[in-house]
Write a structure and sequence with these properties.
The complex is a heterodimer of chains A (about 110) and B (about 110). Chain A has no helices and twelve strands. By secondary structure, chain A is mainly beta. Chain A is globular. Chain B contains no helices and eleven strands. In chain B, the strands form two sheets. In chain B, strands 2, 4, 5, 6, 9, 10 and 11 form a seven-stranded mixed beta sheet that branches. In chain B, strands 1-3-8-7 form a four-stranded antiparallel beta sheet, with no helix packed on it. The chains are: A mainly beta (about 110), B mainly beta (about 110). At the A-B interface, β5 and β6 of A face β5, β9 and β10 of B.
Chain lengths: ~110, ~110
């Protein structure tokens, strides 16, 4: 079956530091890949996505590239802010509109001023 | 992308009672998904709700405990039955309008069972 493995947290950084959260996946087909963010006390928001190999998703300064050869989708940001403090989830879907999401365990990021 | 209205946003319930959670979507969607997020954990799919047919439950989840209704293409309910403290979680509904849009989540229902 499908699975997503992401970097164990928590991750604590100072403001303006570089962020990487690793994510690797196992899937039988050619999945779409997602990063979701959950701010404290809120629901999940789609941060970025990529639907095929070598696609780069980007949003709010965050980026992730779909690497089929390494089955990875690592999240990066060049300069984090305190407002980026949240839980980040990597997820995959086998595709189409009718397939479920498989989530990683989530990584708690805390950014200190 | 779709907009989902989920309610209630939170509730505190007595053990042995039931709670029904509602999700309303502003677009017609074929399938809706119900997830559970236990404290400090990731999301686990409970079931996929199909309009006009029985919901499809994931391993470890049963209809008697989590009955689901899907009366039309914009609405679904999840009931958490005969609750115990172990059911204290955030419950979220989700839909997708296609892979290019990703999946949209409701704001969640934070349930505490006492």
């Amino acid at each position: 079956g499908n699975s997503v493995t992401q970097m164990e947290g928590p991750v604590t950084l100072s403001e303006e530091a570089f962020l990487t959260i690793n994510c690797t996946y196992t899937a039988t087909g050619y999945p779409s890949l997602f990063w979701y963010v959950q701010y404290p006390g809120e629901g999940l928001q789609l941060l970025l996505k990529a639907t095929k190999a070598d696609d780069k998703g980007s949003n709010k300064g965050f980026e992730a590239t779909y690497r089929k050869e390494t089955t990875s989708f690592h999240l990066e940001k060049g300069s984090v802010q305190v407002s980026d403090s949240a839980v980040y989830f990597c997820a995959l879907s086998e595709g189409g509109s009718n397939y479920k999401l498989t989530f990683g365990k989530g990584t708690l990021l805390t950014v200190n001023p | 992308s779709a907009v989902i209205s989920q309610k209630p946003s939170r509730d505190i319930c007595q053990r042995g009672t039931s709670l029904t959670i509602q999700c309303q979507v502003d677009s017609q969607v074929t399938m809706m998904f119900w997830y559970r997020q236990q404290p400090g954990q990731s999301l686990t799919l409970i079931a996929t709700a199909n309009q006009g047919s029985e919901a499809t439950y994931e391993s470890g989840f049963v209809i008697d405990k989590f009955p689901i209704s899907r009366p039309n293409l914009t609405f679904s309910t999840l009931t958490v039955s005969n609750m115990s403290p172990e059911d204290s979680s955030i419950y979220l509904c989700s839909v997708s309008l296609g892979s290019i849009y990703g999946y949209t989540f409701g704001s969640g229902t934070r349930l505490t069972v006492v």
